[in-house]
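User: Okay, second chain of the day. Same drill as before: sequence in, structure tokens out.
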Amino acid sequence: MRNIPELPEEIRRLFPTTFEVSVEYQVRMQAAFQRQVENAVSKTINLAPEATVEEVAQAYLLAWRLGLKGITVYRYGSRPGQVLSIPPQRVEVAHEFTEECRQCSV
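Assistant: Same drill. Structure tokens below.
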């Protein structure tokens, strides 16, 4: 997704798109914000077009275990007309959870 050659590599690395962040990491990111506020935090958890029912269930269960007050999931391409879309051949989804700092690589 960050294959825009006009942008320097160091900038592209700092700003991943939703498909470059695993579902688990998206839920954990929401939980990190949720711990700091009393109100619910809203963030859509984006899933790949081929996401299974089990993967959706795993996202909901993780959100529950982490104490989220709510969660929204969206399976890319599940609606006939969506506001933002990318060519299908460019959808590459991250499946691994990493805690690496994108600024310092730690």
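DSSP finds three helices and two strands in the chain.

User: Thanks, on to the next one.
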